[in-house]
Amino acid sequence: MNASIFSTPCAYAIRAVTYLAAHRSARLTSKFEIARGESIPPAFLSKLLLTLCRGQILRSRKGLLGGYELALPPEQIFLIDIVRTVDGEPFQKCLLENHACSEEQRCMLHPSWLPVRVTLRNYLERTTVADLQRFSRRQPGGNQLIAMTPGPQPGPEGE
């Protein structure tokens, strides 16, 4: 069982966008550099980058000096935008049964899952790629999407 709340493509997309935010420069970044930096299979990444460009999260340019860059500053790209672009609206499916999660079709987990779902949605709606960047710089092992409070996180010495 996958313990992630994100699909594999969505997790890769978040990592790729965060990578681009962390490596912003005057030049565009190639898909191979992103794939190598984030250990994402290049063929898989190509499809994701196209999806992210169509969702206006990234911009691309073809050619010798081509590559990818963020379409907006990292402070303006929210996790919910990436999730919706790659996976559609999050947390819409029932956890136990094969139907939409709703008040009309409640499963036995619905009363306890609803507040968790609201908390996760709020987190995605208020957390930006810039927040992830700040957080990942302070964690051993890089990009770890585990902070539930966006914004600057205290460092190991309580910065």
Q: Could you explain the architecture of this structure?
A:
The structure is a single chain. This protein has helices at 8-22, 31-38, 42-54, 79-87, 110-126, 129-136, and strands at 58-61, 67-70. By secondary structure, it is mostly helical. It has a single domain, classed as Arc Repressor Mutant, subunit A. The chain has a two-stranded antiparallel ribbon. Strand 1 and strand 2 form a beta hairpin. Helix 1 (8-22) crosses helix 4.
Task: Summarize the SSE layout with pairings.
Elements: H1 8-22, H2 31-38, H3 42-54, E1 58-61, E2 67-70, H4 79-87, H5 110-126, H6 129-136
Antiparallel strand pairs: 1-2
Helix pairs in contact: 1-2, 1-3, 1-4, 1-6, 2-3, 4-5
Biggest β-sheet strands, sense, barrel:
2 strands, antiparallel
Q: Which residue ranges are poorly predicted, with pLDDT under 50 across at least 5 consecutive positions?
A: 138-159
Q: Tell me the series of helices and strands, N- to C-terminal.
A: HHHEEHHH
Give the second-level CATH assignment, the architecture: Orthogonal Bundle
The averaged pLDDT comes out at 82
Give the C-alpha Rg: 17 Å
Quick take:
This protein is mainly α and 159 residues long.
Keywords, separated by commas or semicolons:
single chain, 159 residues, mainly alpha, Arc Repressor Mutant, subunit A, two-stranded antiparallel ribbon, 6 helices, 2 strands, 44% helix, 5% strand
